[in-house]
Amino acid sequence: MINYLMSNLDIYVFSSLILRIVLAFLTTFILSIVFGNKVISFMRNRQGKGQPIRQDGPQSHLLTKKGTPTMGGVMIIGTVLLSCMLWAKWTNIFVLTSLAVLVIYAIVGFFDDYEKVTKQTSNAMSAKMKLFLQFSVSFICVLIVTYATPTEFQHNVKFPSIYPFISNFTLNLSWFYIPFAMVVIAGASNAVNLTDGLDGLAAGLLTTIFIFFIITCLETSFTISGTQEVAIICSAVAGACLGFLWFNASPAKIFMGDTGSLALGALLGTISVITKSELILAIVGAIFVVEALSVMIQIFWFKKTGKRFFKMAPIHHHFEQMGIPENTIVIRFWIIGILLAAFGLVAVY
């Protein structure tokens, strides 16, 4: 892959890009490690009782997680923005759009977290209001990205070669692409949010998947100019998530909260739209997809039969209710996430 890139790009430009990718990762990782405890102390002092724990969730969480501060996403978003200011090109429309989505979704998540902490309730912002804000932002984002994409690729959906009978096939959705892409962004945001329920689970999975998208952004740059700069954002997020995992691993000192999970999920969806990797995201982010589907199935089944399909949803809680230790579930999901990323590389390359 590296040889292919170097043969198609100016060696100096490519070397400079790789250096900025590495520096973006190191910047966010080091800043997270250095300032992590200070952020945690600040949040703990301001939040008092910390994030409220679901009364209908696993009962063990009421004992082990009570009093843990939330809004750790502030640390991730802050270090990513600083790193991108240093190493990314802000004149790039894809960079500006991606970071705008990251910040706006983070603000939505912050207000949701703030309401939860101040009112000590696990249900703050209404689902309808949250979805309205998510789809409004994703609509504007998709219009900008579509406008900045070359005409021949604007409304295309690329099928990975792993799908049978449709290898290297692209489908032009015309204007139906816009609602499709909106669902991808908002859906990814909510799927990551639902996955963020165990110590270190979401942070570990996001680290892997954003590293995967570094390669995807570089590969896509040969057909859609400018996506190589988005690799800087992916690298910065990967470093920030890994640094956050230092404090979020069990037993977590701080939770990511909606501030981080909604924003990072939306960013993931946005980058998949920019790189025309929406269906590839469904492969490498299959755990996020399964987590979201488990909630949908649970709600549907309960309304239809009055019974639960799973012992508890999202599905990671189902495994907890089966008696599997939290750390075991998290590590196994990480392993699956790494395998899915490797499988995704096969599907793309």
* Radius of gyration, CA atoms, in whole angstroms: 20 Å
Counting helices, strands and paired strands, the structural category is mainly alpha
Please indicate the percent range of residues in DSSP E strands (runs of 2 or more).
Answer: under 5%
Whole-number count of domains:
1
The rough form would be described as globular
The helix-strand sequence is: HHHHHHEEHHHHHHHH
Low confidence ranges: none
> Alpha-carbon distance between the termini?
9 Å
Q: How would a textbook summarize the main sheet?
A: 2 strands, antiparallel
What is the averaged pLDDT score? 87
- β-strand number: 2
Largest sheet, spatial ordering of strands: 1-2
Tally of DSSP helical segments: 14
The percent range for helix content is: over 70%
Question: Can I get a quick summary?
Answer:
The protein is mainly alpha-helical. The chain has one domain (2-282). The protein has helices at residues 2-8, 11-47, 59-64, 73-87, 93-119, 127-148, 177-195, 201-220, 230-248, 257-274, 278-284, 286-305, 315-321, 326-348; strands spanning 156-158, 170-172.
